[in-house]
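Quick illustration, no need to memorize.
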Amino acid sequence: MPFYDSFSKSPKKPILCEAVGNVTCSRRHTVKKSGFCCAVLGIVVVVVTLGYVHPIAVPVLVPHLHARDPDRTAVTFVTLGDMGTGGSAQTQVAHAMDRVCQRDGCDFVLGLGDNIYPHSVTSTHDPQFQDKFEHPYARFRGIDFWMILGNHDWKHLVPGAQAQIDYTLHSERWRLPHTHYAIPFLPPWLHLYGVDTSLLEAGVGVYQVPAAQAALCGQPGWRLLFGHYPTHAHWFVRRALEHLIRQCRIQVYFAGHDHHQAHLDWGWYQEIIEGAGGAELAAVQGGGSQLRFGRATHGFAWVQVTEARLEIRLYDHEQTVLYVWETARKAP
């Protein structure tokens, strides 16, 4: 799929979720949304579907990027989520990331949402960008941070989300060209797409699914997906994501939201949860036989992909390797 196509605007008449009054809040419990939350959700439905979240045009975006050789034989990146607190835990994780990247290499960083706690930002000049992103990651030079919006990033609704998109042109690191998009400058055997799971939860983000399918389905090599909510977080999110994962035979889905680190093996795809980038930790709950690893420890994942193999290492904030998983690519 051409890089330009990943920034296409939403259609005028998206499919809406039929039951937005009840959403899954954890693996086993649901709660009734208050009238206020439903009103907020309604605002998101109306405004987003009217197309008021404007992507960054590709000719404007590309000069700001740190280009990489698409013919390289290995791609390495770091992924983490739920980091934007500005606290000591975020700083410690950032320093550990930097040391691992200096030693083992990093082409880019994947941010898995909840970029700015607790209520996102109000404009591109909001000082929280400095306190909760630029300062913690100041050591990273010449590296793009490809971000995706989490539920906390929608707290100021469309103005806050738009500010995070627009900040892409005000930063040497921050990259969020749209609510969903494909990562550029990758070899032909690697395809990586980000989706906005909050919009999927609201029932207005289904237009992302055909865009992601166009970018991933039928592509050779590795097909990877990233977003904020894990697949188990909400019924509608799980239905949309697993439909996409099944249709495109996606091998790995990277998510945040749950404030710990985990690896879930669903048999037909792997799920890596990295929600331990700086926010207060939460215990690992459930998972059953699918849970290969889980620990409530601040940290991140380091990923290396070649045409034949994929390796994932989970680190804590002291650079200690907590867990390693690797696999060979199966045809096609």
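The first helix runs from residue 35 to 49.
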